[in-house]
Specification:
Layout lengths: L3 H13 L9 H10 L1 E5 L4 E3 L8 E15 L4 E8 L3 E3 L12 E14 L3 H7 L1 H72 L4 H15 L9 H17 L7 H5 L5 H10 L2 H42 L8 E3 L1 H18 L3 E6 L6 E3 L1 H18 L5 E9 L2 E8 L29 H11 L3 E7 L2 E9 L11
Parallel strand pairs: 8-10
Antiparallel strand pairs: 1-6, 2-6, 3-4, 3-5, 3-6, 7-9, 10-11, 11-13, 12-13
Helix pairs in contact: 1-2, 4-9, 4-10, 5-8, 5-9, 9-10, 10-11, 11-12
Amino acid sequence: MQSASAMSTDLVDRLLGHKTLGAAPRDELAWVASRGHLRRLAAGDILTLQASGRVEGLFVLLSGHVVLHVDRGTGRRKVLEWRGGDVSGLLPYSRLVVPPGDTIAEEPTDILVVPRDALPAMIQECHELTSILVHVMVDRARLFTSSDLHDEKMLSLGKLAAGLAHELNNPASAVARSANLLGKRLGGAETASRALGAAKLTEAQLAAVDTVREVCVATPAHNVRSPIEQADRETAIADWLEDHGADTSTAEPLAETAITLEALDRLAEALSGEALDSALRWVAAGCSVRGLAREIEAAAVRISDLVGVVKGFTQMDHATVAEPVDLGVGLAQTLAVLKAKARAKSASVVVELAPDLPRVRGFAGELNQVWANLIDNALDAIADSGHVHVTATHERGSAVVRVVDDGPGIPTDIRDRIFDPFFTTKPVGQGTGLGLDIARRLVLRHDGDIEVQSEPGRTAFCVRLPLAEANPQGGSA
């Protein structure tokens, strides 16, 4: 059996050949070897488990291969991996407490584990080794930042796509429905036109018909009537048509117009019998066709507007350079893509902009990401029929955006952790714990700051951004 001294010497020799730590002095590597313990993993063994809630310590991979798997709401996937010669786990000065995911061995792996409580002494006694590990931590932070931003953007894109699909569904369905009806109504209009031509009306009678027709043409696409008022109106017109021996099926399209019973009476003074019925069917068919055409136009405009909103929200047509940003436009675009979610909860979302609100300098797409994360979180926090109040003001040389909700508030014991990566209070699969962390990073990138105040019934996130005029060169944004 190998003695403890021989094992320690062998471990130091392996550390001297380590790709990352081999440049450190032998005495410092010996210090680490004496404080750590060797852990051997078989393929499939777990090194760290997110559910455990704690990282054991510093992991020096002597051989093998381990992979970090993270579930960020879209299923578990590989995020990072380490092989023999790499270092993982807790690093000097790192704030890492809870594992971001599960780390699993892909093949037989040897790991030197330096316990968490030994790291403060290591920092004091192993300066060169600590310097190496700090560089490793900086590189790892850069990798995590890149991965986090990519995943959060993909998640936001998924939310955007879902919201856009919901918003597009209504106008797209309206176009399909109206186009289908339009074909049928055009046939009716042609039949009514032939019948009206066969009636051989006089000039005075045609003038009376044109008067009723002009009322139809001038009618807006949607009248502001309650369903009960509309039903009563249809019944009244149907009764009039029946009294005058006309086809009652024209009551519905006529009721959609601004035509009055008095106007129908004047028409009945000029026409009667088959001529009156033909004229009414022609007017009703024309009203119906024009109404369907207006509906198709309105739905197409809505689709075009939605596409414009998405292009503005994502800033597809803008270069990636800092420029003056209109906060009002960005907030309006953000609310447009979140409207479906608000409507699903019967939530009230109110935006108030200060008059003559100055512009800020930065990246409009990134700021829209901030507003999307904050408003999306507010909608998650409130109960059905809750309220979200967004304000944008100008205070002491800064633009200030506040997102306030009337949800239950953030418990005091977790308030200091809400901006930490991977921290979330949402159920598994419904939140990544990255939204607020990403928002904080993007605000800092714009030389701003973000803070939160919360109590039961009121949570307010406040974002302060420097004005474009105060930073004409763009600064670090």
